[in-house]
Amino acid sequence: MKRFICFFVFVTFCVICSDAKYFETNCDLVHELRKQKFPEDRMRDWVCLVNSESARHTDAIGGPNKNGSRDYGLFQINDHFWCSNSTKPGKSCQVTCADLITDDITKASICAHKIFRRQGFPAWHGWSQRCQGDLPDISNC
């Protein structure tokens, strides 16, 4: 019981002190993705992916997945392959998972670009399930 209480207090503290950001609209997200050099010709796919994976929250943590891994941040980047759950940056993106859940999405964007170069959009379950057809309209962004 003490462990549960300590865990609850820790999680509550992390949420209160979090430097997370919520992109209120798709256009807010588009403007940030442009700053992070995401290509215009696939922007609708990226917006759909982010909506499907994290609902535009930079502090989203998903899982546990079937293999016990978790997904982090705006792009829901998996800790099994891409980020380290320690304080030392590691795995394929050479980042900590904590680096992926802040309001500065630079490291998360660099990692997402790397994942895309290696595996394309099918690397993300949310894109595979929801973004192959009806993509969001961002023409006014």
Walkthrough of the structure:
It is a single chain. The chain has 141 residues and is mainly alpha-helical. The protein has a single domain, classed as Lysozyme (Orthogonal Bundle), CATH 1.10.530.10. Helix content is 41%, strand content 4%. The protein has 5 helices and 3 strands; from the N terminus they run H-H-H-E-E-E-H-H. A 3-stranded antiparallel beta sheet has the order 1-2-3. Strand 2 and strand 3 form a beta hairpin. Helix 2 packs across helix 3. It is globular and about 40 Å long. The N terminus is likely disordered. This is Lysozyme. It holds the Pfam family Lys. Keywords: Antimicrobial, Bacteriolytic enzyme, Disulfide bond, Glycosidase, Hydrolase, Signal. It comes from Spodoptera exigua (Beet armyworm). GO terms for molecular function: lysozyme activity.
Strand elements, count: 3
| Weakly predicted, low-confidence segments | 1-16
Number of helices: 5
Q: Averaging pLDDT over every residue, what do you get?
A: 90
